[in-house]
Amino acid sequence: MSSQQDAVLEPDLPALPRRSSTAESAAEVLRTQIDNGRLLPGAKLREEHVASALSISRNTVREAFRLLSHERLVDHTLHRGVFVRAISAEDIRSMYLTRRLVEPLGIQAALTDATAVRRLRAVTESAAGAASAEDWVVVGTADIEFHRTLMSACGSPHLSVMFDRLLAELRLAFLQMPQGRDLHEPYVPRNGHLVELIEAGDRQAALAEMDDYLVSAERALLEALDSSPAAGQRPRL
Hints:
The protein is mainly alpha-helical. The protein has two domains: 12-84, Arc Repressor Mutant, subunit A, CATH 1.10.10; 89-227, Four Helix Bundle (Hemerythrin (Met), subunit A) (Up-down Bundle), CATH 1.20.120.530. Helix content is 68%, strand content 4%. The chain has helices spanning 3-9, 22-35, 47-54, 58-70, 89-110, 114-132, 136-152, 157-176, 181-184, 187-199, 203-227; strands at 44-45, 74-77, 81-84. The protein has a three-stranded antiparallel β-sheet. Strand 2 (74-77) and strand 3 form a beta hairpin. The model is unreliable at 1-14 and 230-236 (pLDDT under 50).
């Protein structure tokens, strides 16, 4: 049976956005809750609570959990249940290894894409406003959006999908850390400086800045992880 036929047979679910799969819809709700910091790393996701909140079956909840597990956003622990994934030092090192490989591609693409540069400038201005208000959660979100925008300049859907998944994991790392000035403030002006270098067409300086930026960010996250308390939050859904 095709996916189109399956969609016709689905019951009406007013509590969820209409998508091709009820499990995908449920996964999207949970993904948004995680991204917004409503479900923190270490939070336990109980099938019965999610099923009740979204008015779906527990089988559908299990399928949603499988989708999120494939995206590395949740972990299933035998005899214990499903938890929002807690990021380890090894995860951070792996993410930043990948970032150092692919983000230079975004720099190179943005050098010839005036629209991408305008979007990058807008994100940096938004982050600066949030920093002035000392809203460091919003600053962290803006930082993620800055790098998403940079990579979208490559025009590759495959690369964007891969990088979006990496950024979702990075968001988990941010949520696991103390959301304070020390973690996020240094990257507000550094993002602005990257935009200035791209605007000036200085390819070599922009690539060097990106490399140093990512090395510094990896070090800061590892230090923050080492000093942060273990995650163990209860879910709010």
